[in-house]
Amino acid sequence: MAKQARAVQTRRSIVEAAASVFAEYGYERAATSEILRRANVTKGAMYFHFPSKESLAQAIMDEQTGLVSVEPGLSPLQSVIEITHQFAYVLRHDALARAGTRLSIEGVFFNGTHPWGDWFDLTTRLLAEGQEQGEVLPQVVPRETAEFVVATFTGVQLVSEAINRRADLRGRVAVMWRHILPSVAHPAAISRLRPEGATDPAAATARNAARAEADIEVGAVTG
């Protein structure tokens, strides 16, 4: 059990080190030697878990989807808003999110699918639920709007990163939603929605991290 736990911790150290390197340098300029230095592991240890730089980058993109979650008790459309604010928060505070975003924008699609697929699917589902509940306008096409929201957020965060390293990102996301909501939400629902976010994204991130840590512990025991 102790050996399994060490293996899980080693893998986590490698992923976190690689995330910081990919976020800083991008995929092509990321050096394996720098990842090893930051992770403080041997080359053999790294290749035991990740046979290539490609597999390590893919692991980062796979894991970034677990950084955000749907908060309980919120309406479907407010949940879509909260997800963008959570991601805005983790882009400032988590190298894994920054690395995954940079790799995505660079077009590092190793498994043949684009990395926004899960976000598209979740947003599509929530918009469809909002339509069923009368919160989202009937003429809205959920998939089309989901892809627009994700694409708009991506552009907003890029501008924020270029201007001031995302220090104002949450404010820019609120502005984004103030422009989007009138074309998506039923007029009666707009007054109940909060484009600036209704929950604390830091608390949501902490809960997500706790769940991830629990999964790691279970994996160490049963893996």
Automatic annotation (TrEMBL):
<dbReference type="Pfam" id="PF00440">
    <property type="entry name" value="TetR_N"/>
</dbReference>
<feature type="DNA-binding region" description="H-T-H motif">
    <location>
        <begin position="31"/>
        <end position="50"/>
    </location>
</feature>
<dbReference type="InterPro" id="IPR050109">
    <property type="entry name" value="HTH-type_TetR-like_transc_reg"/>
</dbReference>
<protein>
    <submittedName>
        <fullName>ScbR family autoregulator-binding transcription factor</fullName>
    </submittedName>
</protein>
<keyword id="KW-0238">DNA-binding</keyword>
<dbReference type="InterPro" id="IPR054126">
    <property type="entry name" value="CprB_TetR_C"/>
</dbReference>
<dbReference type="InterPro" id="IPR009057">
    <property type="entry name" value="Homeodomain-like_sf"/>
</dbReference>
<dbReference type="InterPro" id="IPR047923">
    <property type="entry name" value="ArpA-like"/>
</dbReference>
<dbReference type="Pfam" id="PF21935">
    <property type="entry name" value="TetR_C_45"/>
</dbReference>
<keyword id="KW-0805">Transcription regulation</keyword>
<feature type="domain" description="HTH tetR-type">
    <location>
        <begin position="8"/>
        <end position="68"/>
    </location>
</feature>
<keyword id="KW-0804">Transcription</keyword>
<dbReference type="InterPro" id="IPR001647">
    <property type="entry name" value="HTH_TetR"/>
</dbReference>
<dbReference type="InterPro" id="IPR036271">
    <property type="entry name" value="Tet_transcr_reg_TetR-rel_C_sf"/>
</dbReference>
